[in-house]
């Protein structure tokens, strides 16, 4: 059985909407599209590339798929070549046209996990929230950036189920203050205790 990786770029107040460019997702009047660009640096770029190693399928929400399908098929860099070569599974409530080569409408996340070793959900915030709520993921990588926007779609909007996570490796910090945190879903639910007894 393979692993489902969720990769999200987020502000410190956990806004993950439209990090890539202005106009990417203006839903709700969001005006900070492209907030990630001024904070990219070599360490973050290297971490993103390292995170792609072994990726053999993409699992995308419909909105992210539409944005990416308009961009990545025309890119010939290493990420473009990778994204264009792997299968792409698209979560949608409708029956969209999927014109990007290698794209298929998602039927069952478990079937995708059984067919691939490392499936990555990148962005796709609404869909990622569903996977988090249903505990249908194995790894969660958060790139946290040192800004707060105060508005926008947040990583855990709509709630999260009580879950334990295990840090996979020490955090990495970039020169602009971005911190990369890599977690694995762990068994059980968070425990409680009494700090006065310590």
Topology, pairings included?
Elements: E1 3-11, H1 42-52, E2 57-61, H2 62-71, H3 78-85, E3 88-91, E4 103-105, H4 109-115, E5 118-122, H5 125-134, E6 139-145, E7 164-167, E8 172-173, E9 179-186
GO molecular function: 5-amino-6-(5-phosphoribosylamino)uracil reductase activity
Protein name: Dihydrofolate reductase
Pfam families: RibD_C
Descriptive overview:
One of its GO terms (molecular function) is 5-amino-6-(5-phosphoribosylamino)uracil reductase activity. Pfam families: RibD_C. It comes from Actinoplanes derwentensis. This is Dihydrofolate reductase. One of its GO terms (biological process) is riboflavin biosynthetic process. This protein is α/β, with parallel strands linked by helices. It has a single domain (3-186), classed as Dihydrofolate Reductase, subunit A (3-Layer(aba) Sandwich), CATH 3.40.430.10. Helices cover 23% and strands 24% of the residues. It is built from 5 helices and 9 strands; from the N terminus they run E-H-E-H-H-E-E-H-E-H-E-E-E-E. It has helices at residues 42-52, 62-71, 78-85, 109-115, 125-134, and strands at 3-11, 57-61, 88-91, 103-105, 118-122, 139-145, 164-167, 172-173, 179-186. Strands 1, 2, 3, 4, 5, 6, 7, 8 and 9 form a 9-stranded mixed beta sheet that branches. A hairpin with a 5-residue loop joins strand 8 (172-173) and strand 9 (179-186). It is globular and about 60 Å long. It starts with a strand and ends in a 12-residue tail after the last strand. The mean pLDDT is 93.
């Amino acid at each position: 059985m393979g692993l489902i990786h969720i990769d999200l770029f987020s502000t410190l107040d956990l806004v993950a909407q439209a990090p890539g460019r202005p106009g990417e997702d203006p839903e709700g009047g969001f005006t900070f599209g492209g907030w990630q660009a001024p904070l990219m640096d070599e360490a973050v770029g290297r971490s993103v590339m390292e995170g792609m190693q072994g990726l053999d399928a993409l699992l995308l929400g419909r909105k992210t798929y539409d944005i990416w399908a308009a961009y990545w098929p025309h890119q010939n860099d290493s990420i473009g070549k990778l994204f264009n070569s792997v299968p792409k599974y698209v979560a949608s409530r409708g029956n969209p046209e999927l014109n990007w080569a290698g794209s298929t409408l998602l039927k069952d996340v478990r079937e995708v996990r059984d067919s691939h070793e490392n499936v990555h959900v990148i962005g796709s915030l609404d869909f990622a929230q569903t996977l988090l709520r249903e505990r249908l993921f194995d790894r969660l990588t958060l790139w946290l950036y040192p800004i707060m926007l105060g508005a926008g779609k947040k990583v855990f909007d709509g709630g999260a189920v009580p879950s334990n996570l295990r840090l996979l490796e020490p955090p990495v910090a970039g020169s602009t203050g971005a911190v990369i945190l890599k977690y694995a879903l762990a068994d059980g639910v968070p425990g409680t205790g009494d700090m006065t007894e310590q």
